[in-house]
Amino acid sequence: MAQLIDGKMISAQIKDELKEEVAKMNSQGTTVTLAVILVGQDPASCVYVRNKKRACEYIGIRSISCEMPEETTQEELLAKIRELNQDDSVDGILVQLPLPAHINEDAVIDAIDPAKDVDGFHPRSVGALCIGKPGFVSCTPAGIIQLLKRSGVAIEGKHCVVVGRSNIVGKPMSLLLLRENGTVTICHSRTKNLKDICRSADILVCAIGKPKFFTEEYIKDGAVVIDVGIHRNAENKLCGDVDFEKAEPIASKITPVPGGVGPMTIAMLMSNCVEAAKRKAQK
Ligand code: NDP
């Protein structure tokens, strides 16, 4: 039976560590401020933004809320970002995605000052990760590295298979595992012999967005299984890309859904905000 990798507990640990760090920074006269931009009223986005604000409150990060109407033009949004880029009191800028269809997401991400890019989506941040330079790392993959490290999983020399090559999960995940000296294989929808490749993984990261796709046939005895997927089934229950009941007896460690990767994303966003403020203070 696999040991559960408890994302709830580990994310709470990280938030407590950050809370202490921010209190220390405050006592030395440094504050941490995150600006969150929400365009429109997408219900899921509203929930995410609310959770991010709550996490800020808990840790002691000041959050500035910029709620803009659905019909905001791209130019208006870019102007808001420029204003926040220039505002010295703002350490991190987060634009909640997805944006309404009439706004080009790439143009918006490009407009954020890389020094305030706490989501880690700016091409400069991605490039820095690629060539091993300091920069902000996309929160979900950064959170997975923390889950592995804090659960005592050594990455060095392990065969790490990442299934999914999106810009926010699969690609940065692969680069981070490589940075940790894993031997990395990236799979995607055109990969041949997916089952065989997955079965050769010591660490298997599943991020394809297909509910319960990964069954026991994809998992080596004793593998560590990280499930990034989030889906709601017909009974409104959450499940992941991994068929937990089938995978759990074979894996040595596994993340549940909910309570695995999900809670780590906000914790790492908070960590990036604190890092941004520290870097600014060191300038
Ligand atoms: P995308 O849809 O952007 O990417 C999916 C990737 O999976 C693509 O690279 C695609 O390949 C690949 N893929 C799709 N089907 C298959 C298949 N049958 N076999 C092999 N590869 C396949 O998704 P994201 O990366 O954004 O998200 C993945 C999942 O993670 C989703 O369920 C999402 O909800 C969840 N998620 C969870 C987060 C969290 O905080 N827990 C944060 C972000 C995402 P190709 O490139 O060839 O099309």
Care to describe what's here?
By secondary structure, this protein is an alpha/beta fold. It has 10 helices and 11 strands. The protein has a 6-stranded parallel beta sheet. Strands 3-2-4 form a 3-stranded parallel beta sheet, sandwiched between helices. A hairpin with a 5-residue loop joins strand 9 (231-232) and strand 10 (238-239). Helix 2 (43-59) packs across helix 10 (262-282). It is globular. The relative contact order is 0.17. The structure holds NADPH dihydro-nicotinamide-adenine-dinucleotide phosphate (NDP). Residues 5-119 form the Tetrahydrofolate dehydrogenase/cyclohydrolase catalytic domain. Homodimer. This is Bifunctional protein FolD. InterPro entries: Aminoacid_DH-like_N_sf, NAD(P)-bd_dom_sf, THF_DH/CycHdrlase, THF_DH/CycHdrlase_cat_dom, THF_DH/CycHdrlase_CS, THF_DH/CycHdrlase_NAD-bd_dom. Keywords: Amino-acid biosynthesis, Histidine biosynthesis, Hydrolase, Methionine biosynthesis, Multifunctional enzyme, NADP, One-carbon metabolism, Oxidoreductase, Purine biosynthesis.
How would you sum up this structure in a few lines?
The chain is 42% helix and 16% strand.
Helicity, in percent? Answer: 40-55%
Q: Tell me the span between the first and last alpha carbons.
A: 50 Å
Assembly state of the chains shown? single chain
| SSE series | EHEHEHEHHHEHEHEEEEHEH
Q: How many E-type strands?
A: 11
Instruction: Estimate the global geometry from the Cα principal axes.
Output: globular
